[in-house]
Amino acid sequence: xxxxxxxxxxxxxxxxxxxxxxxxxxxxxxxxxxxxxxxxxxxxxxxxxxxxxxxxxxxxxxxxxxxxxxxxxxxxxxxxxxxxxxxxxxxxxxxxxxxxxxxxxxxxxxxxxxxxxxxxxxxxxxxxxxxxxxxxxxxxxxxxxxxxxxxxxxxxxxxxxxxxxxxxxxxxxxxxxxxxxxxxxxxxxxxxxxxxxxxxxxxxxxxxxxxxxxxxxxxxxxxxxxxxxxxxxxxxxxxxxxxxxxxxxxxxxxxxxxxxxxxxxxxxxxxxxxxxxxxxxxxxxxxxxxxxxxxxxxxxxxxxxxxxxxxxxxxxxxxxxxxxxxxxxxxxxxxxxxxxxxxxxxxxxxxxxxxxxxxxxxxxxxxxxxxxxxxxxxxxxxxxxxxxxxxxxxxxxxxxxxxxxxxxxxxxxxxxxxxxxxxxxxxxxxxxxxxxxxxxxxxxxxxxxxxxxxxxxxxxxxxx
Length: 464
Description:
The protein is an alpha+beta fold. The chain folds into two domains: 8-227, Chloramphenicol Acetyltransferase, CATH 3.30.559; 240-463, 2-Layer Sandwich (Chloramphenicol Acetyltransferase). The protein has helices at residues 56-77, 116-119, 177-193, 217-230, 255-273, 282-297, 344-348, 352-369, 378-385, 420-423, 446-463, and strands spanning 8-16, 26-29, 45-50, 84-87, 95-98, 104-111, 125-126, 147-150, 152-159, 163-170, 246-253, 309-317, 335-338, 341-343, 392-395, 414-417, 426-430, 438-445.
Protein backbone atom coordinates (compact mmCIF):
# COMPACT_ATOMS: atom_id res chain seq x y z
CA UNK A 1 0.00 0.00 0.00
CA UNK A 2 1.52 3.30 -1.11
CA UNK A 3 1.66 6.30 1.18
CA UNK A 4 0.96 9.75 -0.13
CA UNK A 5 3.37 11.34 2.37
CA UNK A 6 1.13 14.35 2.01
CA UNK A 7 2.87 17.73 2.33
CA UNK A 8 1.50 21.24 2.03
CA UNK A 9 2.88 24.75 2.03
CA UNK A 10 1.00 27.61 3.66
CA UNK A 11 -0.07 30.29 1.19
CA UNK A 12 -1.96 32.59 3.53
CA UNK A 13 -3.11 32.84 7.11
CA UNK A 14 -5.80 35.26 8.27
CA UNK A 15 -8.47 35.84 10.88
CA UNK A 16 -12.16 36.08 9.95
CA UNK A 17 -14.65 37.94 12.15
CA UNK A 18 -18.33 38.83 11.81
CA UNK A 19 -18.83 42.25 10.14
CA UNK A 20 -17.79 45.05 12.52
CA UNK A 21 -20.56 46.10 14.88
CA UNK A 22 -22.93 43.36 13.70
CA UNK A 23 -22.93 41.28 16.90
CA UNK A 24 -23.20 42.62 20.45
CA UNK A 25 -20.99 41.16 23.20
CA UNK A 26 -22.67 37.93 24.26
CA UNK A 27 -22.12 35.26 26.90
CA UNK A 28 -23.92 31.92 26.59
CA UNK A 29 -23.88 29.57 29.59
CA UNK A 30 -23.38 25.89 28.85
CA UNK A 31 -26.34 23.62 29.50
CA UNK A 32 -26.19 20.10 30.86
CA UNK A 33 -26.26 18.87 27.24
CA UNK A 34 -23.03 20.78 26.54
CA UNK A 35 -20.99 20.03 29.66
CA UNK A 36 -20.06 16.38 28.92
CA UNK A 37 -18.47 17.54 25.65
CA UNK A 38 -15.91 19.57 27.60
CA UNK A 39 -14.05 16.29 28.03
CA UNK A 40 -14.01 15.24 24.38
CA UNK A 41 -11.25 15.91 21.87
CA UNK A 42 -12.20 18.25 18.98
CA UNK A 43 -13.92 16.96 15.84
CA UNK A 44 -11.85 17.21 12.65
CA UNK A 45 -13.94 16.67 9.49
CA UNK A 46 -12.43 17.07 6.03
CA UNK A 47 -14.54 17.83 2.93
CA UNK A 48 -12.94 17.12 -0.45
CA UNK A 49 -14.33 18.85 -3.57
CA UNK A 50 -13.42 18.18 -7.17
CA UNK A 51 -12.32 21.30 -9.11
CA UNK A 52 -10.34 19.80 -11.99
CA UNK A 53 -9.17 23.11 -13.45
CA UNK A 54 -8.40 25.04 -10.27
CA UNK A 55 -4.96 26.57 -9.79
CA UNK A 56 -3.68 28.06 -6.57
CA UNK A 57 -3.55 31.51 -8.16
CA UNK A 58 -7.12 31.23 -9.45
CA UNK A 59 -8.32 30.03 -6.07
CA UNK A 60 -6.62 32.76 -4.03
CA UNK A 61 -7.58 35.62 -6.37
CA UNK A 62 -11.08 34.62 -7.56
CA UNK A 63 -12.61 32.12 -5.13
CA UNK A 64 -11.01 32.92 -1.77
CA UNK A 65 -12.21 36.54 -1.39
CA UNK A 66 -15.84 35.44 -1.71
CA UNK A 67 -15.25 32.53 0.68
CA UNK A 68 -13.88 34.96 3.27
CA UNK A 69 -16.72 37.44 2.80
CA UNK A 70 -19.44 34.78 2.96
CA UNK A 71 -17.80 33.23 6.02
CA UNK A 72 -17.82 36.61 7.77
CA UNK A 73 -21.52 37.06 6.98
CA UNK A 74 -22.25 33.55 8.22
CA UNK A 75 -20.40 34.18 11.48
CA UNK A 76 -22.73 37.11 12.10
CA UNK A 77 -25.44 34.50 12.64
CA UNK A 78 -23.16 31.85 14.20
CA UNK A 79 -21.02 34.22 16.25
CA UNK A 80 -20.09 31.74 19.06
CA UNK A 81 -17.91 29.99 16.48
CA UNK A 82 -15.75 33.12 16.35
CA UNK A 83 -15.79 33.52 20.13
CA UNK A 84 -14.14 31.56 22.90
CA UNK A 85 -14.97 28.95 25.48
CA UNK A 86 -14.19 30.30 28.94
CA UNK A 87 -13.52 27.80 31.73
CA UNK A 88 -13.09 29.33 35.19
CA UNK A 89 -10.53 28.09 37.68
CA UNK A 90 -13.21 27.68 40.33
CA UNK A 91 -16.15 25.28 39.96
CA UNK A 92 -18.64 27.51 38.18
CA UNK A 93 -20.30 27.12 34.85
CA UNK A 94 -18.22 27.62 31.66
CA UNK A 95 -19.57 29.97 28.98
CA UNK A 96 -19.28 30.62 25.27
CA UNK A 97 -18.27 34.27 25.07
CA UNK A 98 -18.18 36.59 22.07
CA UNK A 99 -16.68 40.07 22.12
CA UNK A 100 -16.18 42.54 19.27
CA UNK A 101 -13.16 41.59 17.19
CA UNK A 102 -13.18 37.88 18.05
CA UNK A 103 -12.34 35.73 15.04
CA UNK A 104 -11.60 32.27 13.69
CA UNK A 105 -8.30 31.19 12.20
CA UNK A 106 -8.35 30.52 8.43
CA UNK A 107 -5.31 28.93 6.78
CA UNK A 108 -4.92 28.53 3.03
CA UNK A 109 -2.39 25.97 1.84
CA UNK A 110 -1.27 24.29 -1.37
CA UNK A 111 -0.59 20.59 -1.75
CA UNK A 112 2.92 19.86 -2.98
CA UNK A 113 1.89 16.54 -4.53
CA UNK A 114 -0.85 15.06 -6.69
CA UNK A 115 -2.60 13.00 -4.00
CA UNK A 116 -6.22 14.08 -4.34
CA UNK A 117 -7.51 10.83 -5.86
CA UNK A 118 -5.53 8.78 -3.38
CA UNK A 119 -6.93 10.63 -0.39
CA UNK A 120 -10.53 10.39 -1.60
CA UNK A 121 -10.49 6.62 -2.03
CA UNK A 122 -12.23 4.06 0.16
CA UNK A 123 -9.29 1.65 0.39
CA UNK A 124 -6.77 1.73 3.28
CA UNK A 125 -4.53 4.81 3.39
CA UNK A 126 -2.01 5.81 6.04
CA UNK A 127 -3.61 8.07 8.64
CA UNK A 128 -0.60 10.42 8.50
CA UNK A 129 -1.45 11.27 4.88
CA UNK A 130 -4.35 13.40 6.15
CA UNK A 131 -2.90 15.24 9.11
CA UNK A 132 -1.40 18.08 7.04
CA UNK A 133 -4.95 18.96 5.97
CA UNK A 134 -6.24 19.44 9.52
CA UNK A 135 -6.21 23.01 10.92
CA UNK A 136 -4.70 23.65 14.33
CA UNK A 137 -6.65 25.43 17.02
CA UNK A 138 -4.79 28.21 18.75
CA UNK A 139 -3.67 27.05 22.22
CA UNK A 140 -5.87 28.12 25.12
CA UNK A 141 -4.98 31.12 27.24
CA UNK A 142 -4.41 29.70 30.73
CA UNK A 143 -2.54 32.56 32.36
CA UNK A 144 -5.68 34.11 33.77
CA UNK A 145 -9.04 33.20 35.22
CA UNK A 146 -11.04 32.14 33.32
CA UNK A 147 -9.06 30.09 30.85
CA UNK A 148 -9.93 31.01 27.26
CA UNK A 149 -10.18 28.41 24.48
CA UNK A 150 -10.64 29.17 20.75
CA UNK A 151 -13.44 27.00 19.41
CA UNK A 152 -12.99 26.70 15.62
CA UNK A 153 -10.24 26.72 13.00
CA UNK A 154 -10.49 26.19 9.23
CA UNK A 155 -7.92 25.16 6.64
CA UNK A 156 -8.47 25.14 2.89
CA UNK A 157 -5.92 23.15 0.91
CA UNK A 158 -5.68 23.51 -2.87
CA UNK A 159 -4.74 20.48 -4.96
CA UNK A 160 -3.85 22.15 -8.29
CA UNK A 161 -5.88 20.82 -11.23
CA UNK A 162 -7.69 18.38 -8.94
CA UNK A 163 -9.71 20.03 -6.19
CA UNK A 164 -9.71 21.47 -2.72
CA UNK A 165 -10.10 20.19 0.82
CA UNK A 166 -11.88 22.23 3.50
CA UNK A 167 -10.86 21.03 6.94
CA UNK A 168 -12.27 21.98 10.33
CA UNK A 169 -11.20 21.56 13.92
CA UNK A 170 -13.93 22.51 16.37
CA UNK A 171 -14.82 21.94 19.99
CA UNK A 172 -17.87 19.72 20.34
CA UNK A 173 -19.04 21.85 23.24
CA UNK A 174 -20.17 24.41 20.62
CA UNK A 175 -23.04 22.28 19.39
CA UNK A 176 -24.09 18.94 18.00
CA UNK A 177 -23.99 17.76 14.39
CA UNK A 178 -27.27 19.53 13.63
CA UNK A 179 -25.84 22.88 14.76
CA UNK A 180 -22.59 22.47 12.85
CA UNK A 181 -24.48 21.33 9.77
CA UNK A 182 -26.64 24.47 9.96
CA UNK A 183 -23.46 26.56 9.98
CA UNK A 184 -21.94 24.70 7.03
CA UNK A 185 -25.11 24.84 4.93
CA UNK A 186 -25.55 28.54 5.66
CA UNK A 187 -21.95 29.35 4.68
CA UNK A 188 -22.26 27.32 1.47
CA UNK A 189 -25.58 28.98 0.59
CA UNK A 190 -24.32 32.52 1.16
CA UNK A 191 -21.21 31.79 -0.90
CA UNK A 192 -23.17 30.15 -3.71
CA UNK A 193 -26.28 32.32 -3.85
CA UNK A 194 -25.56 35.58 -2.03
CA UNK A 195 -26.91 37.10 1.16
CA UNK A 196 -30.22 38.24 -0.37
CA UNK A 197 -31.26 34.78 -1.56
CA UNK A 198 -33.83 32.53 0.08
CA UNK A 199 -31.40 30.77 2.40
CA UNK A 200 -31.87 27.85 4.79
CA UNK A 201 -31.61 28.33 8.54
CA UNK A 202 -29.55 31.48 9.08
CA UNK A 203 -30.70 33.05 12.31
CA UNK A 204 -29.95 30.75 15.21
CA UNK A 205 -31.93 30.43 18.44
CA UNK A 206 -29.66 31.23 21.39
CA UNK A 207 -32.04 31.36 24.35
CA UNK A 208 -30.63 28.72 26.71
CA UNK A 209 -33.71 28.84 28.91
CA UNK A 210 -35.44 26.62 26.34
CA UNK A 211 -33.43 23.70 27.74
CA UNK A 212 -35.08 22.28 30.85
CA UNK A 213 -33.16 20.12 33.36
CA UNK A 214 -35.85 18.13 35.17
CA UNK A 215 -33.38 15.49 36.40
CA UNK A 216 -30.90 17.94 37.91
CA UNK A 217 -28.04 16.82 35.66
CA UNK A 218 -26.18 20.14 35.43
CA UNK A 219 -24.72 20.22 38.98
CA UNK A 220 -23.76 16.54 38.69
CA UNK A 221 -21.91 17.13 35.42
CA UNK A 222 -20.22 20.29 36.67
CA UNK A 223 -18.92 18.47 39.74
CA UNK A 224 -17.62 15.56 37.64
CA UNK A 225 -16.01 17.92 35.13
CA UNK A 226 -14.36 19.93 37.87
CA UNK A 227 -13.04 16.77 39.53
CA UNK A 228 -11.51 15.51 36.28
CA UNK A 229 -10.15 18.95 35.41
CA UNK A 230 -8.45 19.56 38.75
CA UNK A 231 -6.90 16.08 38.64
CA UNK A 232 -5.68 16.85 35.09
CA UNK A 233 -7.50 13.85 33.68
CA UNK A 234 -9.48 13.76 30.46
CA UNK A 235 -11.62 11.19 28.73
CA UNK A 236 -8.90 10.52 26.20
CA UNK A 237 -5.17 10.65 26.89
CA UNK A 238 -4.02 10.47 23.28
CA UNK A 239 -0.36 11.20 23.93
CA UNK A 240 0.59 7.53 23.91
CA UNK A 241 -1.64 6.39 21.09
CA UNK A 242 0.73 5.42 18.31
CA UNK A 243 -0.36 6.18 14.76
CA UNK A 244 2.69 4.88 12.88
CA UNK A 245 1.11 1.70 11.54
CA UNK A 246 -2.49 2.87 11.36
CA UNK A 247 -4.58 3.17 8.20
CA UNK A 248 -8.05 4.52 7.53
CA UNK A 249 -10.64 3.05 5.18
CA UNK A 250 -14.31 3.47 4.30
CA UNK A 251 -16.93 0.74 3.96
CA UNK A 252 -20.46 1.18 2.63
CA UNK A 253 -23.50 -0.63 3.99
CA UNK A 254 -26.16 -0.48 1.28
CA UNK A 255 -29.93 -0.87 1.74
CA UNK A 256 -29.95 -4.25 0.00
CA UNK A 257 -27.43 -5.61 2.48
CA UNK A 258 -29.33 -3.99 5.34
CA UNK A 259 -32.59 -5.63 4.34
CA UNK A 260 -31.01 -9.08 3.95
CA UNK A 261 -29.23 -8.70 7.26
CA UNK A 262 -32.46 -7.54 8.90
CA UNK A 263 -34.28 -10.67 7.76
CA UNK A 264 -31.42 -12.88 8.93
CA UNK A 265 -31.37 -11.18 12.35
CA UNK A 266 -35.13 -11.67 12.73
CA UNK A 267 -34.87 -15.35 11.82
CA UNK A 268 -31.99 -16.00 14.22
CA UNK A 269 -33.66 -13.91 16.94
CA UNK A 270 -36.75 -16.08 16.83
CA UNK A 271 -34.62 -19.17 17.41
CA UNK A 272 -32.47 -17.61 20.14
CA UNK A 273 -34.95 -15.47 22.05
CA UNK A 274 -38.25 -16.99 21.03
CA UNK A 275 -39.42 -13.83 19.30
CA UNK A 276 -38.24 -11.94 16.20
CA UNK A 277 -39.68 -8.65 17.49
CA UNK A 278 -36.51 -6.54 17.57
CA UNK A 279 -36.20 -2.81 16.96
CA UNK A 280 -34.20 -2.78 13.71
CA UNK A 281 -33.57 0.48 11.87
CA UNK A 282 -30.85 0.91 9.20
CA UNK A 283 -28.73 2.69 11.82
CA UNK A 284 -29.16 -0.09 14.39
CA UNK A 285 -28.43 -2.81 11.83
CA UNK A 286 -25.27 -1.04 10.66
CA UNK A 287 -24.08 -0.40 14.21
CA UNK A 288 -24.70 -4.01 15.23
CA UNK A 289 -22.78 -5.29 12.22
CA UNK A 290 -19.86 -2.96 12.94
CA UNK A 291 -19.82 -3.79 16.67
CA UNK A 292 -19.61 -7.55 16.10
CA UNK A 293 -17.16 -7.43 13.18
CA UNK A 294 -14.87 -4.85 14.76
CA UNK A 295 -14.68 -6.78 18.01
CA UNK A 296 -13.65 -9.89 16.09
CA UNK A 297 -11.19 -7.95 13.92
CA UNK A 298 -9.47 -6.52 16.99
CA UNK A 299 -8.65 -10.06 18.07
CA UNK A 300 -10.36 -9.88 21.44
CA UNK A 301 -10.91 -13.61 21.93
CA UNK A 302 -9.74 -14.45 25.47
CA UNK A 303 -12.11 -17.26 26.40
CA UNK A 304 -11.10 -17.08 30.06
CA UNK A 305 -13.07 -13.87 30.38
CA UNK A 306 -15.94 -14.82 28.09
CA UNK A 307 -18.44 -13.24 30.49
CA UNK A 308 -16.72 -9.85 30.35
CA UNK A 309 -19.04 -7.03 29.31
CA UNK A 310 -18.53 -5.10 26.08
CA UNK A 311 -20.10 -1.68 25.60
CA UNK A 312 -21.19 0.24 22.53
CA UNK A 313 -21.43 4.02 22.73
CA UNK A 314 -23.63 6.14 20.48
CA UNK A 315 -25.50 9.44 20.56
CA UNK A 316 -29.23 9.95 20.11
CA UNK A 317 -30.93 13.16 19.04
CA UNK A 318 -32.80 14.88 21.83
CA UNK A 319 -34.88 17.42 19.94
CA UNK A 320 -37.30 14.75 18.72
CA UNK A 321 -37.25 12.82 22.03
CA UNK A 322 -37.70 15.52 24.67
CA UNK A 323 -41.18 16.07 26.08
CA UNK A 324 -40.91 19.83 25.46
CA UNK A 325 -40.22 21.72 22.22
CA UNK A 326 -36.73 22.85 21.19
CA UNK A 327 -36.38 24.82 17.93
CA UNK A 328 -34.48 23.02 15.19
CA UNK A 329 -32.29 26.10 14.81
CA UNK A 330 -31.30 26.03 18.49
CA UNK A 331 -27.55 26.67 18.74
CA UNK A 332 -25.97 24.13 21.06
CA UNK A 333 -25.96 20.47 21.96
CA UNK A 334 -29.18 18.54 22.30
CA UNK A 335 -28.14 14.89 22.14
CA UNK A 336 -28.19 12.06 24.65
CA UNK A 337 -25.81 9.14 25.10
CA UNK A 338 -26.62 5.45 24.83
CA UNK A 339 -24.46 2.57 26.08
CA UNK A 340 -25.73 -0.89 25.07
CA UNK A 341 -23.95 -3.87 26.58
CA UNK A 342 -23.45 -7.53 25.73
CA UNK A 343 -21.15 -10.32 26.88
CA UNK A 344 -17.92 -11.11 25.08
CA UNK A 345 -18.85 -14.71 24.24
CA UNK A 346 -22.20 -13.55 22.83
CA UNK A 347 -20.58 -10.85 20.70
CA UNK A 348 -17.85 -13.12 19.33
CA UNK A 349 -20.13 -16.05 18.58
CA UNK A 350 -21.79 -16.81 15.25
CA UNK A 351 -24.84 -14.83 16.38
CA UNK A 352 -22.85 -11.83 17.62
CA UNK A 353 -24.67 -9.46 15.28
CA UNK A 354 -28.02 -10.62 16.68
CA UNK A 355 -26.99 -10.00 20.29
CA UNK A 356 -25.55 -6.62 19.28
CA UNK A 357 -28.73 -5.61 17.45
CA UNK A 358 -30.92 -6.68 20.37
CA UNK A 359 -28.89 -4.63 22.84
CA UNK A 360 -28.69 -1.50 20.66
CA UNK A 361 -32.38 -1.71 19.80
CA UNK A 362 -33.43 -2.04 23.45
CA UNK A 363 -31.26 0.92 24.45
CA UNK A 364 -32.75 3.00 21.63
CA UNK A 365 -36.26 2.17 22.80
CA UNK A 366 -35.35 3.29 26.32
CA UNK A 367 -34.07 6.58 24.96
CA UNK A 368 -37.25 6.98 22.92
CA UNK A 369 -39.29 6.61 26.10
CA UNK A 370 -37.09 8.66 28.44
CA UNK A 371 -34.14 10.30 26.70
CA UNK A 372 -32.71 11.64 29.98
CA UNK A 373 -33.37 8.52 32.04
CA UNK A 374 -29.75 7.40 32.21
CA UNK A 375 -28.33 10.90 32.10
CA UNK A 376 -26.59 10.81 35.48
CA UNK A 377 -24.10 8.25 34.16
CA UNK A 378 -23.24 9.93 30.85
CA UNK A 379 -19.81 11.15 31.96
CA UNK A 380 -18.90 8.01 33.92
CA UNK A 381 -20.01 5.85 30.99
CA UNK A 382 -17.92 7.95 28.63
CA UNK A 383 -14.78 7.46 30.70
CA UNK A 384 -15.11 3.70 30.19
CA UNK A 385 -15.78 3.89 26.47
CA UNK A 386 -13.54 6.44 24.85
CA UNK A 387 -10.15 5.43 23.51
CA UNK A 388 -10.87 1.78 24.37
CA UNK A 389 -9.84 -1.18 22.23
CA UNK A 390 -12.34 -3.35 24.11
CA UNK A 391 -15.46 -1.27 23.58
CA UNK A 392 -16.78 0.45 20.45
CA UNK A 393 -17.98 4.03 20.04
CA UNK A 394 -19.52 5.66 16.98
CA UNK A 395 -19.48 9.32 16.04
CA UNK A 396 -21.50 11.20 13.45
CA UNK A 397 -24.93 10.46 12.05
CA UNK A 398 -26.30 9.40 8.64
CA UNK A 399 -29.23 11.78 9.23
CA UNK A 400 -27.15 14.96 8.97
CA UNK A 401 -26.76 14.70 5.14
CA UNK A 402 -23.28 16.24 4.99
CA UNK A 403 -22.87 15.11 1.38
CA UNK A 404 -25.42 17.76 0.43
CA UNK A 405 -22.95 20.53 1.37
CA UNK A 406 -22.67 22.35 -1.97
CA UNK A 407 -20.65 25.55 -2.36
CA UNK A 408 -21.41 25.57 -6.07
CA UNK A 409 -18.83 22.92 -6.90
CA UNK A 410 -21.23 20.00 -6.53
CA UNK A 411 -21.39 17.52 -3.69
CA UNK A 412 -18.23 16.60 -1.77
CA UNK A 413 -16.17 13.89 -3.42
CA UNK A 414 -15.36 12.44 0.01
CA UNK A 415 -15.77 13.23 3.71
CA UNK A 416 -13.31 12.00 6.33
CA UNK A 417 -13.43 12.41 10.12
CA UNK A 418 -9.80 12.61 11.26
CA UNK A 419 -10.41 12.64 15.02
CA UNK A 420 -11.13 8.89 14.97
CA UNK A 421 -7.40 8.25 14.45
CA UNK A 422 -6.86 8.88 18.15
CA UNK A 423 -10.30 8.40 19.67
CA UNK A 424 -10.59 4.88 18.15
CA UNK A 425 -14.22 5.67 17.36
CA UNK A 426 -16.10 4.68 14.21
CA UNK A 427 -17.45 7.48 12.03
CA UNK A 428 -20.83 7.18 10.33
CA UNK A 429 -22.30 9.37 7.62
CA UNK A 430 -24.78 8.93 4.81
CA UNK A 431 -23.43 7.32 1.66
CA UNK A 432 -22.51 9.63 -1.16
CA UNK A 433 -23.21 7.20 -4.00
CA UNK A 434 -25.58 4.56 -2.59
CA UNK A 435 -29.03 5.93 -1.88
CA UNK A 436 -30.09 4.93 1.62
CA UNK A 437 -26.62 3.62 2.38
CA UNK A 438 -24.29 4.41 5.27
CA UNK A 439 -20.55 5.05 5.06
CA UNK A 440 -18.46 3.52 7.84
CA UNK A 441 -15.10 5.16 8.54
CA UNK A 442 -12.43 3.25 10.47
CA UNK A 443 -8.85 3.89 11.60
CA UNK A 444 -7.04 0.69 12.58
CA UNK A 445 -3.68 -1.00 12.35
CA UNK A 446 -3.17 -2.58 8.93
CA UNK A 447 -3.64 -6.19 10.15
CA UNK A 448 -6.86 -5.31 11.97
CA UNK A 449 -8.15 -3.35 8.99
CA UNK A 450 -7.50 -6.35 6.75
CA UNK A 451 -9.36 -8.55 9.22
CA UNK A 452 -12.34 -6.20 9.32
CA UNK A 453 -12.40 -5.93 5.51
CA UNK A 454 -12.47 -9.71 5.25
CA UNK A 455 -15.30 -9.99 7.77
CA UNK A 456 -17.22 -7.22 6.05
CA UNK A 457 -16.87 -8.84 2.62
CA UNK A 458 -17.53 -12.40 3.69
CA UNK A 459 -20.17 -12.04 6.39
CA UNK A 460 -23.09 -11.80 3.99
CA UNK A 461 -21.97 -14.89 2.12
CA UNK A 462 -21.49 -16.77 5.39
CA UNK A 463 -24.69 -15.64 7.07
CA UNK A 464 -27.11 -15.26 4.18
